[in-house]
Write a structure and sequence with these properties.
The structure is a homodimer.
Chain A (H helix, E strand, L loop, with lengths): L6 E2 L3 E4 L7 H5 L9 E6 L6 H4 L9 E5 L7 H15 L4 E6 L1 H13 L11 E2 L8 E6 L13 E3 L4 E5 L7 E4 L9 H19 L6 H20 L5 H17 L7 H13 L3 H9 L7 H13 L14 H12 L2 H8 L3 H4 L2 H10 L1
Parallel strand pairs in A: 2-10, 3-4, 3-5, 5-7, 6-9, 7-10
Antiparallel strand pairs in A: 8-9
Helix pairs in contact in A: 3-4, 5-6, 5-7, 5-9, 6-7, 8-9, 8-11, 11-14
Chain lengths: 359, 359
């Protein structure tokens, strides 16, 4: 068995302010006959006609607005696939324009256009066996790292788990910091903290090597430059944050996230708490595990006047707590990365219950 | 015309101490029938039986020792291609194991296995029109960035110029810091400085954006950690230097090298000075253009007790000086990056002559 992951990179990256304008030219060689390109667009843009008009539609191309009220579900992915198959038979490619949920949906549907059955069948590691259709990711908010990851996280009937495979990685990403300009400050903060937190987790983990360390350190430094050193938000902040997200995503190659992500997965499963804000809610209480990172985080929260929600687990039923704990403890590699081989004796159900009660 | 380069990434990267042991497994799915894998190996390893025996030969696979006395020539590339075609007809792939010269030779021959004519015909930008055979790069010395670049620099009958194209990029790289362990300290220094110098050049250039800046900054910091902060050379140094080389190579995506490379190209063309040492000889005299970088460089030279050759242009003929100057001034994008649009009025033939005379 391989000791080190042979990491599948995104084939093509274009980075630059205004690079979104090159999309037509980038997609042209990927078009297969008259099969359309399908653009999955974050609902955030649904009334922004000026932005929508910049999407280079040709022939039967179609814009599909993606509802991001909840994080992507396997049922939603299957339905999008069924609808596209019914309408077009086949497509040239799927282009995801938005945050992590939209990019993950684009990856999943692109895979499901060619892989039989339900996306539920592919939640796990290396279960996808056939390349999907062409897929491109265009982030409009920075921090998830979904643009470079080999997964797309989906909530299924029994678990929240990604379709992790070399086929999941995008063929192309377009990193245009201009697209992030209008993101509301709160949302921008939560999403950027997804990056910052996973850097802290991976840099303090037991799974690290120099590849992931150098990417993680750079991503963390960029977040700190943007949220601690700068006093006004300007173009340079968006430019650096887009790179922080990319570098943070790359750092995952040979590292793993840790306590914040493991606990946050439980919140997401039971309460539907979104990934970005969920990580912040949890990380805010993790001074025991990541003292230096949590101290910096609290300074950023204060400087940017963010209100981290409190008391979100108040009044949950015993069953709900048990379910959260089980989902969280199921993320074994995350716990092992954070706490070492003996993690099960350190993070008992009781200790985790106490942590959930503080959130 | 595209404003930002759509950067072709290496498809697969494996990074890790001992990852060279995974080579057999990595190559297996790339083998086409009984067509052999050809391993181009740096002559440095020609008597190291233990290392050579670790190369996973199967069937008709062959090790070809590459003479690196001079940097790769178009004639040498064409001959290697002709020999392989005569012996095998076709091959499954070319694996370059060594420094920048060996990796560049591997890229060039892989392309020439499928592209007609001479490699001279493809020196330039985007002249290669057909993918080559599968190719993988395995650096055994860190700093050139050749493992991630979209070029392979070749000296032809009239010029030293790479085959720059999206097809030139490796399909796979194996980054195993253990392979760098036995590099002689002088050679290690010169090659690492290739990375450090190109970071200084690109970070001080006019062509920079946040993508290249973040890679360049990281690569430069890693070089400084290794050569200024550390007092003994240990495994961590090799691990960081391999990442510095990779990050330095990536930083080239949206940046350009500058004065040191432009001047050093002239030395290489007329005197055959190798790239790594040539850059050091030139950079040592560039305090006017890169004051901070040159100051750090001189501290590294002193700390590591490196003797930078002096007086190498003494006694050259008028014709040789003129030829060096012409080759160097031909590198227009490098000069423009370093000195701006008006570079021709700043770097006159007289000024460049005076610089060459100081080397």
């Amino acid at each position: 068995m391989a000791q080190f992951r042979n990491f599948r990179m995104v084939n093509y990256v274009v980075y630059g302010r205004g690079s979104f304008n090159q999309l037509d030219e980038i997609l042209a060689p990927q078009r297969k006959g008259d099969a359309p390109m399908i653009f999955f667009v974050d609902e955030y843009f649904q009334d922004q006609q000026e932005f929508l008009s910049r999407i280079p539609l040709r022939g039967k191309d179609k814009i599909v607005i993606i509802d991001v009220t909840y994080e992507p579900k396997t049922s939603g992915v299957d339905k999008l696939r069924d609808d596209l198959k019914a309408e077009f038979g086949t497509v040239s490619g799927i282009i995801g324009i938005g945050g992590g949920s939209v990019m993950d949906t684009a990856k999943a549907v692109a895979l499901m256009m060619t892989n039989p059955g339900s996306s539920v069948d592919y939640q796990g590691w290396d279960l996808v066996k056939v390349p999907g259709v062409y897929k491109a990711g265009i982030p409009t908010i920075a921090g998830t790292g979904a643009e470079v990851s080999r997964t797309c996280v989906l909530t299924g009937p029994t678990r929240k788990l990604g379709m992790n495979s070399d086929f999941t990685t995008f063929d192309q990403i377009v990193l245009d910091p201009e697209l992030c300009k209008t993101v509301p400050a709160n949302q921008r903060f939560y999403t950027a903290m997804d990056c910052f937190i996973h850097c802290v987790e991976s840099l303090n983990g037991t799974y690290l090597n120099a590849f992931s360390q150098s990417y993680g350190e750079k991503a963390q430094v960029l977040c700190e430059e943007v949220f601690l050193d700068k006093d006004v938000w300007d173009d340079e902040c968006d430019e650096k944050l887009v790179m922080a997200s990319y570098a943070g995503g790359m750092s995952i190659a040979y590292s793993q996230v840790g306590v914040a992500h493991a606990v946050s997965y439980g919140l997401a499963y039971v309460l539907g708490t979104k990934h970005g804000i969920g990580n912040c809610i949890v990380f805010d209480k993790l001074e025991e595990y990541y003292p230096e990172g949590v101290e910096k985080f609290k300074r950023m929260v204060e400087k940017h006047k963010i209100e981290i929600p409190q008391g979100i687990t108040k009044g949950l039923t015993e069953e709900q707590f048990e379910s959260m704990i089980s989902v969280s403890l199921g993320m074994k590699p995350l716990w092992e990365n954070a706490l070492g081989k003996d993690w099960e004796s350190i993070m008992t159900r009781e200790k985790l219950r106490a942590l959930y009660e503080r959130l």
